[in-house]
Amino acid sequence: xxxxxxxxxxxxxxxxxxxxxxxxxxxxxxxxxxxxxxxxxxxxxxxxxxxxxxxxxxxxxxxxxxxxxxxxxxxxxxxxxxxxxxxxxxxxxxxxxxxxxxxxxxxxxxxxxxxxxxxxxxxxxxxxxxxxxxxxxxxxxxxxxxxxxxxxxxxxxxxxxxxxxxxxxxxxxxxxxxxxxxxxxxxxxxxxxxxxxxxxxxxxxxxxxxxxxxxxxxxxxxxxxxxxxxxxxxxxxxxxxxxxxxxxxxxxxxxxxxxxxxxxxxxxxxxxxxxxxxxxxxxxxxxxxxxxxxxxxxxxxxxxxxxxxxxxxxxxxxxxxxxxxxxxxxxxxxxxxxxxxxxxxxxxxxxxxxxxxxxxxxxxxxxxxxxxxxxxxxxxxxxxxxxxxxxxxxxxxxxxxxxxxxxxxxxxxxxxxxxxxxxxxxxxxxxxxxxxxxxx
Length: 440
Prior knowledge:
Transmembrane segments: 381-408
Keywords: Leucine-rich repeat, Membrane, Repeat, Transmembrane, Transmembrane helix
Protein name: Keratocan
Strand order of the largest sheet: 1-2-3-5-7-10-11-12
Number of strands: 25
Radius of gyration: 42 Å
Largest sheet: 8 strands, mixed
Mean pLDDT: 77
Number of helices: 3
CATH topology of the domain at 1-188: Leucine-rich repeat, LRR (right-handed beta-alpha superhelix)
CATH superfamily of the domain at 1-188: Ribonuclease Inhibitor
CATH class of the domain at 1-188: Alpha Beta
């Protein structure tokens, strides 16, 4: 006997009022059935099954009876969710609560509790949760506390104007989240930091944040930045940081071409990065970005194709440890033009003794840039010591000459203006002749 026919004799069974589809997984479609309460439904169904209760007269989602094999539930057009409503759905994987009138007040810390053990609730195995098309402006901070397996959360078409503190706390509780849909939520985000997660690629939902100006996605597990990873909708994005990835090895054509306002790009400390395609910064119209600041420190890049970057607009370029050269980088004009394909004028920002020096003028001699430890250069400091000694000797000799000349002049003047006067004493005084020097 089929699953549907086994319940035909029971007038209160779900199949007497709902469409029971013998598909895999088995589905009970109770949509628009004018149900005012949840009837006695199959408690002993021993196969995985799905239940849809959309468009009925039920005003709230009450606590469900034990349905140990129910894996998917859709419940729309309701206003209120009872605490512990899904407590007995121990195998529920997918839950659709979209198109309701739910607000932040509809949720509590016990909304998604699982069965209790030793007075503590266990998590339910929910992996997909759809809360789209509601009136949610914020989320309570602990609403997802018991969802330890959630991978996909859909929050699109709600009334979020910004990500409040409690909303951010609620989202941070979901350690297993792989996909977050915040499209069409009126968000006016200007800065978003998604660093330190496990995103294998750039989430497409980011492209709905039209007001985004600064995006940080450092320390994720990207392997490749693909064409159209970033859409034209991010027209206000001016700063992008994709650093500290141990897996990023390639940037493909068109990866950043749609970011028309991008001015600062951080791609530093991607220790496996070996390839940036020649058209990575070009869009479909072959227009290049007006990038001004680029960081490419500490990677495995061996060369930069001449057409890869908008060189004429760049005012700051950091190539420290370019190609993972940890000790020092020797830069000459031929290397810049030939090896790195950089054929225009840059000025050095470091080290200090070469600050402002035009790189193109380094053709006269090689310049060594110490990237990490400052090592003692005996030859360099030998020149300094010798120069100091020579200058000291010159100053000493010059001082001696000047002193001797002044002393000589003073002696000559003294002899010229001095007079010897002889006179005799009057009577009753010594008759000895006294000689005195009188100076006028």
